[in-house]
């Protein structure tokens, strides 16, 4: 599969100017680390992300626009390759990371993870050397009406390094709350995810889907899964105009996207930490989930 994806990138970079521009834009993007506590977050200045950062994703705005993941509405140059029976891989023309892919379901159907977590694990297994992410419909997905994942190269994936060798479900003193799972057994991981999903929905009173971002990858016959329970979509600083940021899974994995140069120059470790804390679920609710997960073992 990796080779087919490489060939898709080669063909599409030649045939599709929007993608070629996006890849050039990413090559020019400035990245700088900020140190927070014991880990780094990489601030990445990508001007071409501005539309996505500011995107209106309320149901009314979504209903008014043509779905950009439906085959009928794709630009004529855009080409995809099949992944299993249900999904198609496309090159993302507004990349945040190297080899940024969008992996869309063939059908126009709502962004919902509950029955699709196994599919996410399968995609990660088909794309070793990539990470795969899911952004919930109210947690950063710019197409909340069309089921999709994204994927990208693990060349820079700060959370992978930060959490390697850690045991336990919680990552301590990490500013953002995240639940960490490892495992070889697909069915077992799906069961553990379902339990977390149900607890989150119950504790946050949010059905059919709690606010959530997920990242996963496959390494040495094992899946590594990060579940970010969210408190809200965008931070206060976004609405006050202080910072133009709209964190989703990639930001929570440690690549913090800022489309505006002034934010890139001035954003501080404290500001990043504050955004992480504000958009992920508070400690007391996360501890309750962890306690209830452990009491069931
Ligand atoms: Zn669609």
Fold and architecture overview:
Helix content is 37%, strand content 22%. The chain has 297 residues and is of the alpha+beta class. The chain has a single domain, classed as ATP adenylyltransferase (HIT family, subunit A, 2-Layer Sandwich). The protein has an 8-stranded antiparallel sheet with strand order 3-4-5-7-6-9-10-8. Helix 1 (2-15) crosses helix 2 (17-28) and helix 7 crosses helix 12. The longest helix has 19 residues, at 186-204. The model has no long low-confidence stretch (mean pLDDT 95).
CATH class: Alpha Beta
| CATH homologous superfamily assignment | ATP adenylyltransferase
- Strands ordered across the widest β-sheet: 3-4-5-7-6-9-10-8
User: What is the global morphology?
Assistant: globular
Summarize the structure.
The protein is of the alpha+beta class. The protein contains 12 helices and 11 strands. The chain has a single domain, classed as ATP adenylyltransferase (HIT family, subunit A, 2-Layer Sandwich).
Strand and helix layout:
Layout: H1 2-15, H2 17-28, E1 30-36, E2 39-45, H3 50-53, H4 59-64, E3 81-83, E4 87-91, E5 101-105, H5 117-126, E6 130-135, E7 148-153, H6 158-163, E8 179-183, H7 186-204, E9 212-219, E10 222-229, H8 236-240, H9 249-252, E11 255-258, H10 261-266, H11 269-279, H12 283-295
Parallel strand pairs: 2-11
Antiparallel strand pairs: 1-2, 3-4, 4-5, 5-7, 6-7, 6-9, 8-10, 9-10
Helix pairs in contact: 1-2, 7-12
The structure holds zinc ion.
Zinc ion (ZN) binds at residues 67, 69-70, 108, 146.
């Amino acid at each position: 599969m990796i080779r087919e994806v490489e060939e898709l990138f080669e063909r599409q970079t030649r045939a599709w100017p929007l993608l070629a521009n996006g890849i050039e834009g990413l090559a020019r993007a400035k990245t700088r680390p900020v140190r927070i506590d014991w880990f780094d977050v990489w601030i990445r200045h990508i001007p071409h992300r501005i539309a996505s950062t500011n995107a209106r994703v309320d149901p009314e705005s979504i209903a008014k626009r043509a779905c950009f993941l439906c085959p009928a509405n794709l630009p004529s140059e855009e080409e995809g390759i099949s992944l299993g029976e249900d999904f198609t891989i496309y090159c993302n023309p507004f990349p945040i990371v190297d080899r940024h892919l969008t992996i869309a379901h063939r059908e126009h159907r709502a962004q919902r993870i509950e029955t699709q977590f196994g599919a996410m694990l399968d995609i990660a297994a088909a794309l070793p050397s990539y990470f795969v992410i899911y952004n919930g419909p109210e947690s950063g997905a710019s197409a909340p009406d069309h089921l999709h994942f994204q994927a990208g190269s693990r060349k820079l994936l700060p959370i992978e390094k930060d959490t390697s060798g850690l045991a336990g479900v919680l990552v301590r003193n990490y500013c953002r709350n995240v639940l960490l799972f490892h495992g070889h057994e697909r069915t077992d991981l799906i069961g553990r995810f379902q339990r977390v999903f149900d607890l989150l929905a119950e504790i946050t009173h949010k059905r059919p889907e709690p606010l959530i971002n997920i990242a996963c990858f496959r390494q040495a016959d094992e899946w590594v899964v990060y579940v970010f329970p969210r408190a809200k979509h965008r931070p206060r600083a976004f609405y006050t105009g202080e910072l133009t940021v709209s964190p989703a899974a990639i930001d929570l994995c440690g690549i913090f996207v800022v489309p505006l140069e002034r934010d890139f120059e001035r954003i501080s470790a404290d500001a990043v930490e504050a955004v992480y804390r504000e958009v992920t679920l508070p400690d007391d609710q996360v501890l309750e989930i962890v306690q209830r997960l452990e009491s069931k073992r």
